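Long-time lurker, first post.

We've been arguing in lab meeting about whether adenosine-5'-triphosphate would sit comfortably in this protein at all. Half the group thinks yes, half thinks no, and nobody has a model to point at. So I'm putting the question to the forum: if I give you the sequence and the SMILES, can you give me back a predicted structure of the complex? Inputs are below. Any interpretation is welcome too.
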Amino acid sequence: MSAVVQVKDVQKRFKTGEAAVTALDGVSLIVNRGEFAAVMGSSGSGKSTLLHLMGGLDRPTSGEILIDGADLARMPDRERTLFRRRRIGMVFQSYNLLPTLTALENVTLPRMLEGVNGQDCAERARSLLDRVGLSGRLSHRPQAMSGGEQQRVAVARALMMNPAILLADEPTGNLDSKHGEQIWRLLASLAREDGATVVAVTHEARGAAFADRVVVLRDGRVAGEFSPGGEEHASLVAARYAELVG
Ligand SMILES: Nc1ncnc2c1ncn2[C@@H]1O[C@H](COP(=O)(O)OP(=O)(O)OP(=O)(O)O)[C@@H](O)[C@H]1O
Ligand SMILES: [Mg+2]
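Top reply:
Settle the argument with this. Predicted structure of the protein with adenosine-5'-triphosphate, as tokens:
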């Protein structure tokens, strides 16, 4: 198996005024190609910090993070921006779609930023929207779509550049359980059927149950990990999680 993400003994400290916070305190983690990993942990345990570092939005205080073998922290700014745009797909709790653009235009946008446009670009966007079950919503603007639909557009947009990794921070945090489940099912099938590599932060045992692995953070460290065993095992996931966070 090949490692898409290698997190090596990463520390992240934040200084705000007098106080310093150690958000990550020696985290190591490998995510292989085609794997779907869920990251759980209580509020403040460092989940978003870890995801931001993997996505190159911030740099570790010490340690190393390699994405497809590349160390984002050592790249010059411009190279890092391009790498992030081309190789990393991100999805957030709040969808972050552009309100004036249609679903199709939102998905096409990453390619337009690359200066690529035209027919094959629109075709790829259409096929991705079809993949996430939205072929009937191409011309809808975000405000004319449900939260679940908007999040599926955001997933399609994140896949537009065919990234090495798809990172999601609480992707179902704003959704009811039915629409949340659609997103978890989608992320799992992207890994299993399309070979995508996915890391998703969540506090929902029901969502984490869809993943291949659950990694639990506690106070900025990896408290442990386990295989959830499938969507029907949410209560087991909740129990293992509770054990690990104490
Ligand atoms: N930019 C920042 N400046 C200072 N402290 C920060 C910053 N970002 C995060 N922290 C601190 O680092 C710790 C970890 O934060 P992080 O956002 O990673 O937690 P989280 O696990 O995602 O929590 P939640 O479930 O509430 O989203 C927290 O104590 C937080 O206050
Ligand atoms: Mg967070």
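For your lab meeting: The chain has one domain: 3-245. The mean pLDDT is 95. Whichever side wins, do check it experimentally.
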